Amino acid sequence: MPVQLLKIAKGQSEIPLPSHLQKENLQNLQEGCDNTNRYVQGIVTLSYPLTKLGDGTAFFKLVLQDPDNLSAQINGINVLIYGKMAEDCSKIIRHGETFIAAGFKVIKLPTAIENGRHGCHLEVSEEMGSAIYVCETEMVHIILPFSSGNKAYLFSVAPKYVYTPLNHLKDGTIVNLYGVVKFFKPPYISKGTDYCSVVTLVDQSNVKLTCNLFNGNLDSLPKIYKVGDIVRFHRIKIREYNGQMQGITSGGFASLTFDGTIGAPIVPRTSSKVYTFMDEEQKTIEELRIWAASNISVSGPAAKLSGVQPMQFFDLTCHLVGKAKVDGSSFLLKVWDGTKCPYLTWKVPVEAKDLEGDKVLLRQLKDLVVDILVYDNHVQLAESLEIGSFLRIYSIHTKQASADNEDVSHIEFHLHGGTCYGRGIGVLPESNPDVKELKVFLESVGLADSQNTESMCSTYADSTFYNVTDLELHLQRCQQLSVTVLTDHQDMSNTELKTVRNSTAPQQYRIRAKLRTYKPQKLHQSVKLHCSKCNSLQEVPNRDDFKLVLRGSASTTSNPELHNTSWYESVTWTTQDQREITIHFVKHDEMLPHPEDTLLMIEGGTLREIWKLSKRFKCVIPVRSTEDDLELLDLSAPFLLQGSVKYYGCKQCSTPKPVRYLSSLAAEQQPSWEPTEIAQVLGIELLQYVFIMKFTLVDETGALNAYLFDYEKFFQIPASEILTNNLLQERMQMAMDTLCPPGRKLGDLPWLECLIKSYNVRDETKNQVYYQIFDTTIAEDVV
DNA sequence: TTAGGATTCG
């Protein structure tokens, strides 16, 4: 038997192998040697799902780590297993187990060593006479890198942890548990001797548990960065408080925190050097992620400085550029997030000698950094922050005010005292995805940041190319809209409106006119759905129409025979109100892609559930079961949701096909899940969102009505997104207010440059000429 | 011990 499972008893050190086999060190492997009677041994630290190669051969890949060479630079080697061996191995291999391969082939990799991986990989198959031995261990302890930088892996037998669901907690017990973070206060200095963090968890039982966590060491508290993170607590004490269960740290408390995003790497955040982590736990996290995706709202009050409004509370991810002592009860943080706040921001006066941070940088970013005044209990923590670090400041309050000597009001940023609503400051590591994104942004505006203050000082002090004006201009270009009006035909000369009206159609003109008025005044009424096949226009269905269709299909139960096919994976559960929901996740290469790339089909969901899923996943298609396939719902409902956009099909021109036709797209190398492509394979004639408006244009010679028929080009706002996006609605309103400022006299209205074309519309009795705006876009510095 | 979620003095 080519794959053998060996059990190692406690204390047994030798692995019983055939005596002719000689051990080869993982570090000494070389291409071209005869390895028929040699074996390598290592610990499985990673394995990939079993797949099939193009010719149908089964293929299984894992990463082996050498436990004996703890300080080795080269750590992992890939082992590629083919054929039946691949199938057998995939069934029994678990992370942390000892893996032995005899009779392997060494292949040198074409590229240099990366990620600390080995310069070779191993190939193993029955055909080449290989043998595999797998030694089962019950539990793995992983020891994280020590301060010396060496990695150590220690294996021993340990008791299995039991995790208690949140609805089974009992007063006076000490338990282990998993949960999704529903609310948290980042660690702050308590009134006692410790740091404190308050964390509210929830799990699939829908029961909440608020935990009060204390530790004198900041690092020992969970590293939670946002709602939706997943935590694992060990040895937390449960008590009853005010009739509810409450968690509190007890001796030996330990925690792991994971990103709650489906598909994100499962890398625990912890300060503890030793922790246990098994495959089953990976599964627990994946399940919690999927559950949380439709049950937890993570849309926090995050904002960029460019998007802040007066009188709001928001979370800011930012770079600490300077800090200063103000007085005993307040402290100043000067931060930047790469964008410019559109309001005049306040500057807190401080003594120059009290201001810490790179002076050159502070001067360069003078009009971009914002002053955040933190109070009371936050002062001590703020004082300890390192310049150059990345922060998330939770629940900053923006206040509009004006000083006595100022004509215009400014905006102030306060982090008030107390910890209500999770108010506080957290330091983010460089590995945090939001920090990575921020760094990319800072770099894009010419600020390669550095954690190292000294190198930052020298970089900026020596820099000559880079000054305030350059940066401001760059930011203006980045953040403001451009200034053009015509997108084509700039060589045409202007025609007066009187001449346009007196000419025969069809023709094209360039005009210079003022917008006296427009319809509809309620801008959302300008959005319609257009079928380019039958040229019909219709109103956008409302949510009640959708609800009705969903309710109609709720009576259809999911057909289990249609679950878990070759191209999708299905999950079913029952909701608290006894509804059954089934989600079919479309796979790619046998795996579930990241949620932002995942198309899913849902049976039995409510409007709210579908809406939540569409925020998280690339595409959501509501379906119902028939006897032999999944099918789309009635076309009064959207057949596809992407983000906040609902896509509809034309009832007249569509011939819906069964959902299995989607599998052709799923099989593509990189499915793009474009609505047009999805519509095409499903036999749907896609309706397009379009703005339809009537502009009354005037110049010195006369007036005319011109229609705007615009998908996206004129406002630079997709018509498809306007109905669900308040910011875009505001932007459109601002644009219209600039084109046609309310309450302004005709003489004070701005000029518009437009291209219009005339066309004839005939009915039985008369011929009428209409005008349509084309190849024109809004001047972008208007918003 | 501390906090026990539930904004805003400055």
From TrEMBL:
SMART domains according to UniProt: Telo_bind
Gene Ontology molecular function terms on file: G-rich strand telomeric DNA binding; telomerase inhibitor activity
Subcellular location: Chromosome, Telomere; Nucleus
SUPFAM superfamilies the UniProt entry points to: Nucleic acid-binding proteins
Gene3D superfamilies in the cross-refs: Nucleic acid-binding proteins
Gene Ontology cellular component terms for the protein in this record: nuclear telomere cap complex; nucleoplasm
Keywords: Chromosome, DNA-binding, Nucleus, Telomere
Domain Telomeric single stranded DNA binding POT1/Cdc13, chain residue ranges per copy: 163-293
GO biological process, one term: telomere capping
PANTHER family named among the record's database cross-references: PROTECTION OF TELOMERES 1, PROTECTION OF TELOMERES PROTEIN 1
Family designation: Belongs to the telombin family.
Protein name according to UniProt: Protection of telomeres protein 1
